[in-house]
Amino acid sequence: MVVVAPTTHFHWPIAMPRVVVPGQMPVEKIMYPLEPTFREYPEEKFEFVLGSASDLDPEGSVVIVALNDGTSRAVPYDTLFIATGSSAKDDMPWKLVGTADNTFDRIHALQKQVQGAETIVVAGGGLTGAETAGEIGYQYGRKGNKEVYFIYNDDLPLSPGVMASVRKQTKVELERMKVKLVPKTTVTKATTRGRDTILEMRHADGTTRTLTAQAYLPTTGVTPNTSFVPKSMLDENGYVRQTSFLRADGYKNIFVVGDAGSLEDNRSLAADSQAGHLIKFLPAYFEGGSLPEYKVNSKTMYGITLGQSKATGQMGNMKVFSWIVWLLKGRFLGTDKVPGIAAGKMTMSATFEK
């Protein structure tokens, strides 16, 4: 077994909205070293390669790896698992920023900006944006210590796929924390001038305005880490075309798990569910058996934490009580499970023995 990754640490993105607020959660709660776990594996059967896949030859069953030391290496395979995830836009540490060192540096720089800012702007109306605005609003906005703005391009926070009642509740809770909401607006340009960031914004009615902030936190989506994959294997958005058997379309010996694949939205629960499915049935595959089809969960589930005391969410078409989301997610943001997940001993939904 050969594991290729550019980072020495496991990164837990779910807790990042709280981590960016200085003093609320140590970075060590979301960045766990992989070496202690890898040390347990027999050297003759396991190798960790520190680098990033730069090219894939699916016909020749070879991955070219750009090593972190500047050299490259060809790694042949019998079975390949593409679990390269995605990267946040704008060089933001909502996901890994390349190496572990780069990610640590980016998080610490962001915390310093937030700490010293008089005005903080969060842009992007998705889950990460809403939760980040909530964490910053809870710490600073409600106390009047700093001005906190939340810019999003719809009339309500979150995507239209979320129930209207949940989106309205998110808006209400953010307003209670004195977060200044700027709906139906898009940031078109961000220019750094000293410690200030000048934001140019366009409203839905076509008017424009500028806003000056000392901390700017864009949460404008992710891009899949699939630049090494032949374009013939990708869909129009750059995701690996993934079958319901979690295989790359047209290849029986290439599996795809998580954000890099096209089968489900980029959510942690989807990646967790796909990983759990393969973990359960891979022994049969390696013994020459067939894998059962993976069942996509069509039930919409969201848990939105809004600061350290409020939350909202939905399960299917049912709105979930705030205290339930806080109990299941808001208290620890999953960091109570991270050591086991990083060590490969559990998933978000189930535990298993290695």
Protein described:
By secondary structure, this protein is α/β, with parallel strands linked by helices. The protein contains eight helices and 20 strands. The protein has a domain at 2-90 and 222-297: FAD/NAD(P)-binding domain, CATH 3.50.50.60. 24% of the residues lie in helices and 28% in strands. The strands form seven sheets. A four-stranded mixed sheet has the order 1-4-5-6, with no helix packed on it. β19 (310-315) and β20 (318-320) form a beta hairpin.
Number of helices: 8
DSSP helix fraction: 10-25%
Question: How many strand elements?
Answer: 20
Mean pLDDT over the residues: 94
> β content, as a range?
25-35%
User: Major sheet: order of its strands?
Assistant: 1-4-5-6
- Alpha-carbon distance between the termini? 14 Å
Which parts are unreliable, with pLDDT below 50 for 5 consecutive residues or more? Answer: none
**Computed CA radius of gyration, to the nearest angstrom:** 21 Å
Computed structural class: alpha/beta
CATH superfamily of the domain at 2-90 and 222-297: FAD/NAD(P)-binding domain
**Which fold name fills CATH's third level, the topology of the domain at 2-90 and 222-297?**
FAD/NAD(P)-binding domain
Anisotropy-based shape: globular
Name of the level-1 CATH class of the domain at 2-90 and 222-297:
Alpha Beta
Largest sheet: 4 strands, mixed
